[in-house]
Amino acid sequence: MSEAPHVEAHAALLKGPAAISDGFDAADVARRTKAVLIGSAGNLIEWYDIYAYSAFSLYFAGAFFPQTDPVAQQLAAASLFAAAFLVRPLGSALFGYYADRHGRRNALTAAVLMMCFGSLMIAATPGYASIGVAAPLILALARVLQSLSQGGEYGSGATYLSEVAHPNRRGFYSGVWYMTLIGGQLCAILVLLALQRAFLTPEQLKAWGWRIPFVIGALLSIFAYVIRRDMPETELFIAAESVIRRENRWRILARDWKTMALVVGITIGGTSAFYTYTTYMQKFLKLSVGLNDAQTTLITAGSLIFALILQPLYGALSDKIGRKPMLVAFGVLGTLGTIPLLTTLRHTQSPFGAFLLICAAWAIVSGYTSIAAIVKAELFPTAIRAMGVGIPYALTVAVFGGSIDSVALAFKNAGLETGFYWYAAGCIFISLICYLFMRDMKTHSKMSQVL
User: Fold this and answer.
1) Nearest of 239, 220, 233 to residue 35 by alpha carbon
2) Are 131 and 63 in contact (CB under 8 A)?
3) Where are the bilayer-spanning segments (predicted)?
């Protein structure tokens, strides 16, 4: 085809004039909002399962890894967490291809079911003392299943979100969708807080209590599977399906290699910052700042609530001023502010001061997180959107996101903790270069293109 048809208007016509009008239509808003929330609920549950591993690794690391040094145990658990990220690109390729060929809904339903199996395996696996080296091997297999699922979730989920959201409110709904990603970690932290403060002693948590969140995660995954089966397929995919079914998606993807490289550049700084202030921050507060378990959990939960609030606000702002200004602001402030923020946080003596510093970091990082999904989705046509978003994103997260805990702890073990601060700032600077030279996707979106 010499020219890609504009299917967005075609898709909107399937629902009548209200769907293509810029004005307010209650029925259209309700329909789109319901679809976004159902898709996002599954996303929350998927990310809860992932973050439960990180949040509870302080308790289960000793059960799977026999080292006596707590930092060494955490490093082993973090290394496995990072290694499992290496299969996420495979998950993105498999589920992304399935989503682009057979529909976004089908891919998302299959992804959450695989997450259920991974969580159940972690919950049921005996410790090293019982079955020896088989324990960490089974744990590794479970993490592989979770990572395959998560690799498929991001690309398919971001695609579904972008295609069901109103064209003039995609930034806002991107923020809503990212709320569920952060909300997944918040739920894991709240489960940890409840077990710490109300139900179990530290000894019970280390002995068997750490299994509880993975049982909860498996049950929630089953719930997500049930509600996702009834999700409506996106109109953009339905309208384009007859055209793209005849095309070779891998050939189209290869043609867009420069765009995929841009996704890598966009993601490096954002994913390194995100994992610094989520998965690693809990360990940083305990091992480096010296706070106790209760303080660490409360500060992490409080800062995540703050981050949660920012996502739709920043996303809505991008609908007004564009995506590029938000990304550039994150790039500049993140490059200049990461080292001072982490240095000050490392030496703070006040839990409340630590909370404020992490909130300041989130005020910067949210310039990326709130719109990351929609920016990437707007870069690709309908035929390869799930693959185009998911594969380069997963590759980048595997190298620069999932490795954050391992990199930070390795710097700490070597007595060079400040080196990690420079590393994190350098990652953001790389992305800043991409932000400065890319087009604003709010005005140059490919959402209406088929091929």
Assistant:
1) 233
2) no
3) 47-65, 77-99, 128-145, 176-196, 208-227, 259-277, 297-314, 326-346, 352-375, 387-408, 420-438
